[in-house]
Write a structure and sequence with these properties.
alpha+beta, 10 helices, globular
């Protein structure tokens, strides 16, 4: 498909777009290498320049005009923003920005304190060395648990974090020139992710992770064993941070991969937490609830909204949002497939949690919000989008456990 003439694109953006398209048209792996080298150099130039949205602008255009080139460029940009090759004191290094996600849900209230103690930080560092990192790597961790909204919000910002933390790993006296945004923890949130964020630095060409290194002449260290050792060694410390919560500990890995996986895994946790809290706070057991599921978005599904109502009424007393995280997920909802759709997965989860009546509404509906308070509306069993209202006798705030 021909690409719409990009009349408004800058010279750098135009070159980036052209290289992504040529990579998409490549006919061999050897040609791929050629275009990838040129594309990588152009991405580096853009990300190392002044703050800009050049990459995002090109991706927006390719999303509409050339989906294959879009996917290739997105993958390359992620790589070049979460990693870097650089020289420090005449030695050549590679750096990788990593996160360690902790996914927590509770019927009480999530802890609001993000700062971890010095002892906890030292313990996590010790566990990384003993279970996860390659022997000749060096690394640094931020001393805070970072939330989604505090993460880099652009490729340019991600690359800046990568560079600054890499320098900190090599030179402890270096002070990174970025600050975390203020954390806006929302009262009433029952499920969320917190992240340890850091950077691993190795001599250029060396392994980052333990499972990339050889155990003996014929085999590498087992990835499964490394991951299991990480879980086992960190469980007690993580549990002490998230008292009263169910916590899933994820393995240290690259920034974008772990962010996506955290987004995916937190969705069912939010639903579990909501139903558990309603049972405790409103004395409504799951078998006394019914759920209505509706797809919302403009031109294609962007999220599912789940309205929870008493089994004998149509009022929505609580709601959950199940975001659609990728173009592939959105497309899968509109085509026949042997794999369960998201609505199938949501319905199966609700029934597993004890809600016998699950109504799935057809079609695509606008994602409406309350004009007064900004809260999202949720569907009732009649198919109407309404403001959720708890019974008057129910205290809307989660119990303070911490």
């Amino acid at each position: 498909m021909p690409v719409t003439p990009p009349s408004r694109l800058s010279r750098d953006a135009q070159r980036l777009l052209n290289l992504a398209i040529e990579l998409g048209r490549s006919g061999s792996r050897i040609e791929d290498h050629y275009w990838e080298a040129l594309l990588g150099a152009q991405i580096d130039k853009i990300l190392l320049g002044k703050k800009n949205r050049t990459v995002e602008t090109v991706l927006e255009q390719l999303m509409t005009d050339d989906s294959h080139a879009y996917e290739l460029l997105a993958e390359e940009v992620e790589t070049y923003s979460e990693s870097a090759v650089f020289t420090h004191k005449r030695k050549h290094y590679q750096a990788l920005l990593i996160t360690v996600p902790f996914l927590a849900w509770t019927r009480y209230q999530l802890p609001k304190e993000d700062r971890i103690t010095e002892a906890q930080l030292r313990h996590f560092e010790k566990c990384l060395v003993e279970t996860t990192l390659a022997p000749d790597s060096t690394f640094v961790l931020l001393p805070d648990l970072v939330s989604f909204e505090q993460m880099p919000q652009s490729f340019h910002e991600t690359r800046h974090w990568t560079q600054q933390l890499a320098l900190k790993a090599l030179d402890p006296a270096h002070i990174p020139d970025f600050t975390l945004r203020e954390s806006n923890h929302h009262d009433g949130v029952l499920a969320d992710a917190r992240f340890l964020v850091g950077a691993i630095v190795v001599p250029k060409g060396n392994a980052f992770f333990r499972w990339q290194t050889q155990q003996d002449e014929t085999s590498f260290f087992s990835r499964f064993d490394c991951i299991q050792a990480w879980y086992d060694s960190t469980h007690t410390t993580v549990s002490s941070i998230f008292t009263g919560c169910h916590v899933e500990i994820m393995v240290p890995n690259a920034f974008y991969l772990n962010n996506r996986e955290s987004d995916r895994r937190i969705r069912p946790m939010a639903v579990k937490a909501a139903i558990t809290w309603l049972h405790m706070a409103a004395n409504l057991s799951p078998d006394n609830l019914r759920a209505t599921v509706m797809a919302c978005g403009e031109n294609s599904p962007e999220e599912y909204r789940i309205g929870l109502s008493p089994r004998q009424g149509n009022d929505v007393i609580y709601g959950c949002i199940w975001p659609i995280l990728s173009k592939e997920e959105a497309m899968a909802e509109t085509i026949d497939s042997e794999e369960p759709s998201l609505t199938d997965q949501i319905a199966a989860l609700l029934k597993e949690l004890g809600i016998a009546e699950v109504r799935r509404l057809p079609g695509l509906h606008p994602g409406e919000f309350c004009e007064d308070c900004g809260a999202p509306y949720f569907p009732n069993p009649m198919g109407e989008m309404v403001h959720p209202e708890l019974p008057e006798e129910v205290n809307p705030g989660p119990i303070q456990f911490h």
